[in-house]
UniProtKB/TrEMBL annotation, chains A, B:
PROSITE patterns: CNMP_BINDING_3. It comes from Marinomonas arenicola. This is Crp/Fnr family transcriptional regulator. It comes from the Bacteria. Gene3D superfamilies: Jelly Rolls. Residues 13-78 form the Cyclic nucleotide-binding domain. InterPro entries: cNMP-bd_dom, cNMP-bd_dom_sf, RmlC-like_jellyroll. CDD domains: CAP_ED.
Length: 198, 198
DNA sequence: TGAGGGAGTTAACCTAGGTTAATTTCATTT
DNA sequence: AAATGAAATTAACCTAGGTTAACTCCCTCA
């Protein structure tokens, strides 16, 4: 599990989105983070101007409201880029923390350096914009779901979108992902159970 | 108001995000749309794989739920890029229509051709990714607002985010932007009025 | 073995916002 | 000036989900 090997994982992930990236440009050092279950990679409010890559494991993005209520923005399973685009780009504190739900292997680069070194590489930029397109589309879908759908519908959608996660993570996190309390989710599940009995 | 002039508007808008774009690459023809107040540039469900630019005027993005309820995703004032990133990128039907709230001058390019012609230009790609970063960040903020804030809070935020629009557009569209019914918005405004009397 | 302690369930009550419908206000057309 | 009609307000009633709290399962750890 050396750094070279991990770095190659990251490269091949990027290469899947658009090939011929000239990785020789990249000299900024990779950093390794081993984040154990329930620990935080970084906390809300810190500055996390790094490009993180989740090699293996499972995390959630959690943000806490002024009144202290937790809200799960999303879940992410490796292998996958993670982190806060907003914080990287605007050089401002992150609006959410990243918590490991299972032991996770994560690496990171300083985004400022990474971007400066790679931004003249056309293949990289194209790949970066495809990544942005993708996360934008997901956010747009999520916006729609909150406005148009009931909590019950959102729960059913969650079960389709993350079929394996339903068993793997505590129910309260699912509730906070669909934007309701654990109590309300329990009620909904109860109702669904009765409905399917008929 | 000839096409050359309009095209220059679009170019200089892009150039503000990142200069030195080589516009000589671009040969796909620009198209002009004059969309009168309350008319649609395109309707939900159509294919709108074009890069639109709103030169002047005001529009809203409207999507209609299965039950026939309207929801306003956002408002856009010219000059600004408009359209559906999702539809452009995934070549799928748009999930919302664009309706003019005031007479608007809009131009468009076929996105497939535009992108093919410009994608080798580093300055353009960089500028495109900055655009994507920006719209992603806005969506993320909007996601947060729906989960964490009350409708009253969202209304107050709207008034700050679009100070001029409060007077310019019908209240029902504001309601549908913050995700509530016109009746509920009216109630909230009433409550705020009383509160500020004290 | 048994004593926490967190996660989920259930029930009772509360509240924000939805629904329907009546009323008013204002803008446009004739 | 009258007539139409859409937009906003208000009131009465309803419902989804929040809040609090009691109760039950585990699971862990001593």
């Amino acid at each position: 599990m050396d750094k070279v090997h991990l770095q190659n994982n990251v490269f091949s992930y990027f290469n899947r989105l658009g090939d011929e990236i000239d990785w020789k440009r990249l000299s900024t050092p990779i950093e390794v983070h081993l984040t154990a279950k329930s620990e935080y990679l970084f906390q809300q409010g810190e500055s996390a101007e790094r490009l993180y890559f989740l090699h293996s494991g499972l995390v959630r993005y959690v943000s806490v409201s002024g009144e202290g209520k937790e809200f799960t923005q999303t879940f992410a399973k490796g292998p996958r880029i993670i982190g806060s685009t907003r914080s990287m780009v605007t050089r401002s504190p992150v609006l959410f923390g990243i918590q490991a739900l299972e032991d996770s292997i994560i690496t990171s680069y300083d985004w400022g350096e990474f971007y400066q070194q790679m931004r003249r590489d056309n293949a990289f930029l194209e790949c970066y914009s495809h990544f942005l397109e993708e996360i934008f589309i997901l956010k747009e879908e999520r916006e729609n779901t909150f406005v148009k759908d009931s909590a019950e519908r959102r729960y059913l959608d969650f079960c389709v979108a993350f079929p394996d996660l339903k068993e793997r993570i505590p129910q309260q996190y699912i509730a906070s992902y669909i934007g309701i309390t654990p109590v309300a989710l329990s009620r909904i599940r109860q109702k669904l159970k009765l409905k399917n009995r008929l």
